[in-house]
Design a protein that fits this description.
Layout (H helix, E strand, L loop, with lengths): L1 E11 L7 E6 L21 E4 H11 L5 E5 L7 H14 L3 E5 L4 H7 L5 H4 L2 E4 L19 E6 L2 E5 L9 E4 L5 E4 L6 H11 L4 E3 L1
Parallel strand pairs: 2-4, 4-5, 5-6, 10-11
Antiparallel strand pairs: 1-2, 1-3, 6-7, 7-8, 9-10
Helix pairs in contact: 1-2
């Protein structure tokens, strides 16, 4: 069973509590206006990789990390792969799981009535990004998005789950700076401008 991914990145120190592993899914048909991850929309981008190979990568380092965050792209548009992977992670590691989705919870319940994701995801951040409702907190892109935990098989709305003012930054083999985090309003434009002044190409994921 293959999974189309854009990136696996670690360590990251945002998008959830503590020291984390991040996985970015390739492909999304929700096309939110103002999305900062438009390179992840294409279903033919990224790389096709076996789910069990991804699992093996994560389990080799799992003991060094607090959690795993899955974003995209749209994770739920590869639902079968997502559930197989998370089943393995939750039964074989102690990692807590955060997952970002552009779908509302009600939509997910209709699309996937098995509700397996209730069992495998610790914190689910739901809702399409709305450019006119940009959020200045550090755990969601716009104020309409809702965070859920799952207790005894039922979704529970939660408030601010974590506080982190850190960006996770690295430089790839193409000398591109990669930054992981949820930007405040106009923050990316400012960073882009600052980088251009010193002739650095950027790539936000």
């Amino acid at each position: 069973m293959n999974w189309r991914l854009n990136n696996i990145k670690y360590p990251i120190y945002n998008l959830g509590e503590g020291k984390r592993i991040g996985i970015w899914i390739q492909g999304c048909t929700l096309y939110c206006k103002g999305c900062v991850n438009q390179t992840l929309w294409s279903k033919t981008g990224g790389k096709s990789i076996n789910v069990f190979d991804v699992y093996n990568i994560i389990t080799e380092i799992a003991n060094e990390y607090d959690g795993l965050t899955i974003s995209g792209g749209e994770p739920f548009q590869q639902y079968e792969q997502l559930m197989v992977f998370l089943h393995l992670i939750k039964t074989k590691t102690e990692l807590n799981v955060y997952c970002f989705t552009g779908y509302e919870l009600e939509e997910l319940n209709k699309l996937y009535p098995d509700k397996l994701f209730y069992k495998y995801i610790d914190t689910l951040i739901t809702g399409r990004y709305e450019i006119n409702n940009n959020s200045n907190d550090n755990y969601r892109g716009s104020t309409n998005q809702i965070l859920y935990s799952f207790e005894s098989g039922k979704p529970v709305i939660i408030g601010n789950p974590f506080v982190s003012k850190k960006w996770s930054i690295s430089v790839n083999k193409k000398s591109q700076i990669q930054m992981v985090g949820i930007p405040k309003w106009d923050e990316l434009k400012k960073i882009e401008g600052d980088l251009k002044l010193i002739k650095i190409n950027k790539k936000f994921i």
